[in-house]
Amino acid sequence: MADRNAPGRFITFEGIDGAGKSTQGRRLARWLEQHGVSVCLTREPGGSPGAEQIRNLLVTGPAERWDPWCEALLLYAARRDHWIRLIEPALARGQWVICDRFADSTFVYQGSAGGMCMAMLQRLHDLALGPVRPDVTVLLDLPVPRGLERVRDRATGEDRFENRARDYLDRLRKGFLDRARAEPDRIAVIDASAAPGEIAHAVLDELRARLPRDTASWPTTAP
Ligand code: TMP
Hints:
By secondary structure, the chain is of the alpha/beta class. It is 53% helix and 12% strand. The chain has helices at 21-34, 49-59, 68-92, 103-113, 118-129, 144-152, 166-182, 196-210, 212-215, and strands spanning 10-14, 39-43, 96-100, 136-141, 187-191. The two termini are 27 Å apart. Thymidine-5'-phosphate (TMP) is lined by residues 17, 43-45, 59, 75, 101, 105-106, 109-110, 161-162.
């Protein structure tokens, strides 16, 4: 958990590729800034200079470049750098950190879909970061074919994960939903096939419901 004594809050967006995480993260960040909340918007893998270098190793090249264990080790090297250099200091300053993907992605991509043992991943997490977890995680849930359609229209060159087989992608969606069922207090599932404005509303509603004390003074204006 993000340190409850630190004034900031740690919000993560998760989901399959093409679910709209980046769009919704940016939208939430803009709304919060407009209403006086200082925000640090970031992403994984990446978010700090060292972690962005590791990202480049992870997201380019052929799918067989790394096995799930190597991916997990690279991801946790990146995540630790990101945590100590950017996220933890931002939370301590009282900022709200909005992060596009975090540890749930590793448990789902390398664990549920990649076949790594969840207990080993948990040990890796505990070793690298200790008891760190987001205050609220928004899972943008989308059927795999819809995600694929959206991803196909992009040309980022970062397609190592996106070129995986369809059954891998099906395991991703199920893996995220399984995590949400296991941790309903932290993970809010939102239908990502709705219009972006509706999704943004749903995200704010979930934050109000889950962080009532932090959000009590927020206006009800549209995001
Ligand atoms: P992005 O496209 O959301 O920026 O993420 C890049 C890819 O990295 C995406 O296909 C998911 C993958 N990924 C993992 O496999 N494990 C992780 O822990 C993270 C953060 C991302």
